[in-house]
Amino acid sequence: MSSMPSDPSPDSTLAFLREGYRFVGDRCDRHGSDIFQTRLMLEPTICLRGRPAAELFYDDDKFVRHGAMPMRGQRTLTGVGGVQGLDDAAHRARKAMLMSIMTPAAIDRLGELFDDEWRARVPVWVRSGPVVMYDEVGRMLARAVCAWAGVPLAGADVASRAADLHAMIEAPAAVGPRHWRGLLARRRAEPWLGDLVERVRRGALPAPEGSALRVIAEHRDDQERLLPRRIAAVELLNVLRPTVALDRYVVFAALALHDHPRWRERVPGDEPATTSFVHEVRRHYPFFPVAAARVRRSFGWQGHDFPQGRRVLLGLYATNHHPRLWPEPERFRPERFTGWPGDPFSLVPQGGGEHFAGHRCAGEWLTVELMKRAVGNLTGTMRYRVPPQDLALDLGRMPTLPPSGFVVDGVRRIG
User: Fold this and answer.
1) What is the reported pLDDT for 356?
2) pLDDT 10s digits, 269-294
3) Which terminus of the chain faces fewer neighbouring Cβ atoms within 10 Å, N or C?
């Protein structure tokens, strides 16, 4: 076996936290290789990028997800016992449960609810002063996804529930108060949703047929057992939390329209152009930095040893910016997706591989639909001004966002 390039530092945890999204890609460039080894949190770790690496990483015969994500991420972002940490039959059954919610009709229904929320807010924005789009879109998505999922959400609770969902998203790579807020948010959210699950099971709370709340509350494993209350709450949060997290993509779409104004004129009424624009937003802007797995049993690949149990990170941002996959990767060019047939291992902002049984994000189709709806509303239902503000993206911060949250003012309704 050939020698795998190695980081000279005895531990690269601080460098990873400092460099964020660029950690994997910059080191691959430095080593002249799409694979290298390092230590993160004192544990030997192999880092990969690129299409062949993604195809390898999503081979379930070679990797497992159990124990791959650090507990600080499970206790804040994904939840302990959630689908992201399962393997084999247990994962397939849980993933099938989640995918059963993501029917074309259901996705379209959530899109309609999001449209309704957006159009209801435009008159408020017209009358108000400056609007922080990140705050507004997060609350709109929280209201829409809870209504869609069958989760009762009182108007007075929208801001606090959305804030808790944001806190969980912010926490995994953070230290200090930002991490603690995520821990506390999950400790509030799981009992809230667990109580709703129990009420549905007792018949005390009606939940629409096919809704996330009902499907998860009634799901049984291969032993015909209902999910434990807390696990059901974790999986319900795995529907709500990632949907609210899409407010970042909406902000990135607004930022792209601001930086590339010709697309503001091109996308209205043009479905293929809108789809290409959305895919390029997902490729170009930072969302998930990496995905984690562990080697199921020792094997060799491209002349390198992968020892059993070794943690492996696939650089998602690094793959989406790989110059051999994406010419001029730092340029925003939606045209690159014109006529794109789709490839499960090259565009991987929410993971790669197969949707129904693999570890690709269950809500990716929902993501694309909601982003297309947002772009339609940004270009077709309103006009606005973007005042001077700090719109720079700090790629060392995970997850990142323009510091201003993308402020608009002078909103006018059109259409």
Assistant:
1) 86
2) 999 999 999 999 999 999 999 999 99
3) N
So what's the pLDDT on residue 355?
86
Give 61's Cβ-side CA count (13 Å radius).
Answer: 3
Relative to beta strand 35-40, strand 43-48 is antiparallel
Pairing of strands 290-295, 304-306: unpaired
Backbone angles phi, psi at 38, to 5 degrees: -155, -175
Distance of CA 36 to the CA centre of its chain: 25
Q: What is the value of pTM for the model shown?
A: 0.96
d(CA 47, CA 35): 6
CA distance 158 to 116: 16
Name the amino acid, one letter, at 44.
P
- Report the C-alpha gap between 337 and 360 in whole angstroms: 20
Instruction: Report the distance separating Cα 260 and Cα 267, nearest Å.
Output: 12
Low-confidence ranges of the chain (pLDDT < 70): 1-2
Q: Which tokens belong to 298?
A: 């020792």
* Cα torsion angle, 228, 231, 237, 239, sign: negative
Over residues 7-66, the pLDDT tens digits come to 999 999 999 999 999 999 999 999 999 999 999 999 999 999 999 999 999 999 999 999
107 CB-side CA count, 13 A: 18
User: Is residue 43 within a helix (H) or strand (E), and if so which, with residue range?
Assistant: strand 43-48
Report how far residue 60's alpha carbon sits from residue 252's, in angstroms, rounded to the nearest whole number: 32
Instruction: Please enumerate in sequence order all residues whose Cβ is within 8 A of that of 123, keeping only pairs 6 or more positions apart, or say none.
Output: 413
Q: Are 178 and 400 in contact (CB under 8 A)?
A: no
The residues that bridge with 291 in the sheet, in sequence order, are 314
Residue 112 in 3-state DSSP? helix
Q: Which of 396, 341, 361, 410 is nearest to 26 (CA)?
A: 396
Residue 122: CB atoms within 10 Å: 18
pLDDT of residue 2: 63
User: What DSSP element (H or E) covers 239?
Assistant: helix 229-259
